[in-house]
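Methods, example record. To illustrate the input and output format used throughout this study, we show the complete record for Cyclase. The sequence lines were provided to the predictor; the line carrying structure tokens was produced by it.
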Amino acid sequence: PGLRAEVFSLTEAWTPGARGIGVDALAGRDLRGAAVLLHTGWDRHFGTPAYGAGAPFLTGEAAEWLIAEGVTLVGIDSLNIDDTESGGERPTHSALLAAGVHVVEHLTRLGDVPASGARFTAAPPAVEGFGTFPVRAFAEID
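The corresponding predicted structure is encoded as:
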């Protein structure tokens, strides 16, 4: 059945000079138990050299807010949910994972998923001993 998906269209919520997605871009919906999917538009660079630098990310403050809202999973269509240009700090990963919130990165085609009314599944193969592993991610529209 998958998780109830709440997709945020954030293509205009960030700029190259201000890449962090904050709380203000996410407020206004019931997110308890949901898979929150962040459509930043960065997936347009997937498979190109441009994909590796300058990607948008979720701020640590926004991660803490999502935890307080009771989300189950956070997915993003970019290289990393944290700022890859911050010198290796991972406040968003650390906060979400410590709270038991799953993280899915490198998503594509989130623009094809409605803001509400879909179910999201991220199914990894049965492999033990890995901290990160590819998943087959898909959304089913209700």
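Annotations derived from this record:
DSSP finds two helices and eight strands in the chain.
The first helix runs from residue 60 to 69.
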